[in-house]
Structures are given as C-alpha cells and as structure tokens.
Amino acid sequence: VDNKDSLSIISRFQEYLRINTAHPNPTYNEAAEFISSQAKTLSLDSQILEFVKGKPLVLLKWAGKNPALQSILLNSHIDVVPAEHHKWVHPPFEAHLDPSSGHIYARGSQDMKCVGLQYLEAVRKLQASGFRPLRTVYLSFVPDEEIGGHDGAERFANSDIFKNMNVGIVLDEGLASPTENYRVFYGERCPWWLVIKATGAPGHGAKLYDNTAMENLMRSIESVRRFRASQFDLVKAGLKAEGEVTSVNMVFLKAGTSSPTGFVMNLQPSEAQAGFDIRVPPTADPVSLERRIAEEWAPAARNMTFEFKQRASVYDKFGKPIVSAFDASNPWWALLEEAVKKANGKLGKPEIFPASTDARFFRERGLPAIGFSPMANTPILLHDHNEFLNKNEYLRGIDIYESIIKAYASYDEPARDEASRAEM
Ligand SMILES: CSCC[C@H](NC=O)C(=O)O
Ligand SMILES: [Zn+2]
Ligand SMILES: [Zn+2]
After folding, report:
1. SS3 state of residue 308
2. What residues flank ion ligand 3 with Cβ within 5 A?
3. CA distance 73 to 71
4. Is 385 helix (H, G, I), strand (E, B) or coil?
5. Angle 323-325-327 from CA coordinates, rounded to 5°
6. Which burial class, exposed, middle or buried, applies to 259 when counting CB atoms under 10 A from its CB (0-12, 13-18, 19+)?
C-alpha cells in the first residue's frame, strides 16, 4: 500500500467512526447510507433490509463464479455502546488520529466498526488485484447487537432471505489481543440477566427483627458473592480461562423509601431488589445453576422471587452446546489458520468469547461461526473510555482479511453439513 492509499483507507475508517451510532439513539440511517455508498464504489449488490422499522441492516453481495457453492458471510454490527464524553482524552465521535502514536480514538474503533470497514477494504484490494471469488461473499452490517441483537442479527438469521443465501460460514467479532497473537473464538457464554426481589415486613429503622426485605436480599447477595469468588478463583489460579467459568456481577441495587428530600432513614423498606449480569459457558450445567438461583439466591422460603430479563439457551434444539467445531470436521477453521499465517499473522488457541455476540444466532442455526477481530498488540478497550485502534494495526488487519477472504472465496470443496456441528 502506498501512502496515499493508506491515507484514504484511514480517512474512510474515520468517516465511519464519526457517525454516532451509540445507543439509545443510533443514527442508523446515516451509517447505512455511508456503507451503501462504499458498496457502490466497489460495484457490490447492495440492499437495505428493515426487519424492524428504523433499524436498517445493510446486506452486500459479491457474486461468486459458482453460486451453487455455499456462501461466506462477513458480519459486523453498526451500533456502538454509549460513551461518557467528558471522560475521554479525545471526543469519542471525532476519531482523532494521534500523530505521534498513530492511535485512532473513537467509540467503535475496536467494537466493531474496524472489522466492518476492514472487510470492505479487503474486498477493494482483492478487486484491484483482479481476484474473482468462486463462492459468493456477503457482507452484513447489522443494527442492535449491543442491545441483544433481537431486531437485527436474530431476525436476519431466521429470515427467508438468509436461508436463500445458502451461507456455509460466518465470520463475526472477536477481541483485541495485548500480545502478538490474534484471538479467535469458537463459542461464547450465554447471557442470563437476572433480577432478584426480596420482600419483608416494613418497620421502624431502630428495630431489630427478622425477615426484612433488606436482610433477605443481603443474604442472597452474600451467597452470590461466594459463588462469584469460587469461579473467579479458578481463573486466578490459571485452571480455567475467562470464558470457561460462570461469571456473575451485580449491576444494580434498588431499595429504600424515597421522599423529596432524599431517602427516608428510619424506615426499613418492604421491598428490595438486585440485578445480576450472569454469563454461562456452553460447557456449564444450566440446570444446576438454575437450581442454585431458585434455592440459594432467591428462595421462596425467604420471601424472594426472581425474573430473567434475558436468558439465552445454552443448548441448541438437539440438546448440544452451541459451539462451532475447530477440528478437522470444520474445514473453515484450518483455512482461517492458514490464511492468517500466510499474511504473517499468528493465532492464539481457540477460546470461548466471554461476552455475547451476534454469532450465537448463526450458530443456533447450525452454522459454523468464528469470532475474530484482527487486533494484535492492542489493549482490550471495548466498552471502555478512550477506546482506540492503532492505524498500522488497522491496516494490517485489512491484509489479514484479504488473505482470509481470498482463501474462503476460493475454497471449492463443498462443506459437508454435519461438519458444522461440534461434538462436545
Ligand atoms: C444479551 S445480548 C448483549 C450483547 C452484548 N454484546 C457485547 O457487548 C453483551 O453484553 O455481551
Ligand atoms: Zn461488538
Ligand atoms: Zn460491544
């Protein structure tokens, strides 16, 4: 790449980053227009699907020479999480490029506007080199991943349009890696968002009595904390990776009787609740966790109830953990490894993604999906202040994708259907 090319590649990335697609009011239309205009410069077929009004999904198609072969889907989400503007060194939607370090600061620089545009830039380079794909390559830019993906990737994966695309492999997001090895993911933990509620007799703030809502809730919180520590200890001791234990973090506490001048101090409230973000590995036993919740964390005997705000299934409809194979049964895995190597990149060991991504909707349909965001030598800053990606790392990622897309789109063995299922 000569300097002029890389300058325009970087400024296109900045342009995308400057479109504020943060929740709760993402400017999806502006982003969809930007992506469509990019697709036009590449002569890709482009359509905007609106499974839910106001939530556009941009679907691009680079037609392959053999449409009978299963296609390749390169997925990325358009939306980003909100940012606390005043806590950033550079405003989160300015995409400031620091001239001395080469870091580009922006919300979405790692998660995951980088990946979406790297796919496009890789296609641009492949086209310039005269490459023509054997398999059809699709690029999807989807809304709402950060709020659960139900109006985005989930509807898309369950649509007839998707069915007719005859997808054989999906690439989706991974995580930055502080080392020189890229991280790569074959599965992810399932989000369970739990609210537990305690009730108890109200009374004078000076009175000691049993069964207050606060006491009942506190006992649960203590029990949750013991479990949390037991899981965290396994990670700290190096016995399990982050994605292999069940995480539970308290994310809100709600209790007390408020008045216009603040909380009432001498009244013990009759209700109290707490919310927990729980992530369940595909290898965990969801039944025993649910029993723990019902018996220890929210026992009816202690006047407690619970409710899930989100409860993704650990198993698919065949009762198997929702993971993609990374052995010889999944030819896409070896192809990815080789392609990354060919582009002088190194891959770490296959991992379970600790949070959730849209990949689960494709895996649920029995498709292999690989989580991969080519960012090596980069601190993990997704959802953090001062999220950044170095411009050279971004450019290097384009070369990596160029190699992967070339290998995938040239692969002429029809992938066997059962190859997409993992035996775990
Ligand atoms: C319940 S779906 C939420 C998806 C979100 N994804 C990335 O951060 C997450 O919290 O993992
Ligand atoms: Zn993401
Ligand atoms: Zn995210």
Report:
1. strand
2. 111
3. 7
4. coil
5. 155
6. exposed
Tell me the per-residue pLDDT of 52-69, one tens digit each, with 9 for 90 and over.
999 999 999 999 999 999
pTM recorded for the entire structure: 0.92
Q: What are phi and psi of 128, to 5 degrees?
A: -65, -30
Ligand 1 pocket: which of 23, 79, 111, 146 to mutate (most atoms within 8 A of CB): 146
Number of H helices, E strands in the chain: 10, 19
The yes-or-no answer on residue 145 being catalytic is: yes
Say which residue, 314 or 39, is predicted with more confidence. 39
In the chain, the domains with their CATH numbers are: 3-188+321-420 (3.40.630.10), 191-280+284-311 (3.30.70.360)
Q: Does 222 show up as a binding residue in the annotation?
A: no
Examine the residue annotation and report whether 160 is marked as an active-site residue of this protein: no
Residue 158 falls in which region: left (phi positive, over 0), alpha (psi -120 to 50) or beta: alpha
Quick check: bond before 112 cis, omega within 30? yes
Strand partners of residue 22: 80
Distance 146 CA to ligand 2 centre (A): 7
Which ipTM score applies to this complex? 0.98
- CB contact at 8 A, 55 and 31: no
Ligand 1 atom closest to Cα of residue 81: 8
On the 0-12 / 13-18 / 19+ scale of CB atoms within 10 A, 250 is middle
Among residues 153, 139, 68, the alpha carbon closest in space to that of 361 is found at 153
Would you say the CB of residue 310 lies under 6 angstroms from ligand 1?
A: yes
What pLDDT does residue 2 have?
57
* 172 among annotated binding-site residues: no
Please tell me the distance from the alpha carbon of residue 272 to that of residue 189, in angstroms, as a whole number. Answer: 28
**Tens-digit pLDDT profile for residues 144-156:** 999 999 999 999 9
Backbone angles phi, psi at 312, to 5 degrees: -75, 145
Q: Which residue type, as a one-letter code, is found at position 144?
A: D
Q: Which ligand is nearest to the CA of 142?
A: 2
